[in-house]
């Protein structure tokens, strides 16, 4: 678990910021099956999820999401579009109350391999996504929002 401290050394009730990407190629979405870190199962291990994670030191949003996608899949991405800022403090299946910033991105080319945080990568058709109970956190809700966006073309980003 990540521990953050404010200037007054208060570490209670803090929330972390994460970035995730809905990576698109040829009308399909790339999902990663969550694996391990240092040989230990990570949160949501064994479930499918969007590619992403925590910010690194001195990163901005774009740098963080590009790095996380590269680490977890080996794919370069471009044409980022901000889909949603999910700041719901009662997110299901969340152990840290993360504020999640979710992008839509195009896959450019695969230049590497996934790290141990992803045990398997798979491209899915939008109408053949894994069942919600097989998807980590509330990433299934983000995928549903993306599908709705494709049909309705509402303004982005979505807050909450």
UniProtKB/TrEMBL annotation:
Alphabetical list of Gene3D superfamilies matching this protein: Nucleoside Triphosphate Pyrophosphohydrolase
Protein source organism: Candidatus Roizmanbacteria bacterium CG22_combo_CG10-13_8_21_14_all_34_12
GO molecular function: hydrolase activity
Entry keywords, A to Z: Hydrolase
InterPro entries in UniProt: NUDIX_hydrolase-like_dom_sf, NUDIX_hydrolase_CS, NUDIX_hydrolase_dom
Name by which UniProt lists this protein: Nudix hydrolase domain-containing protein
PANTHER family per record: ADP-RIBOSE PYROPHOSPHATASE, DIHYDRONEOPTERIN TRIPHOSPHATE DIPHOSPHATASE
Domain of life of the source: Bacteria
Domain annotation Nudix hydrolase: ranges: 14-147
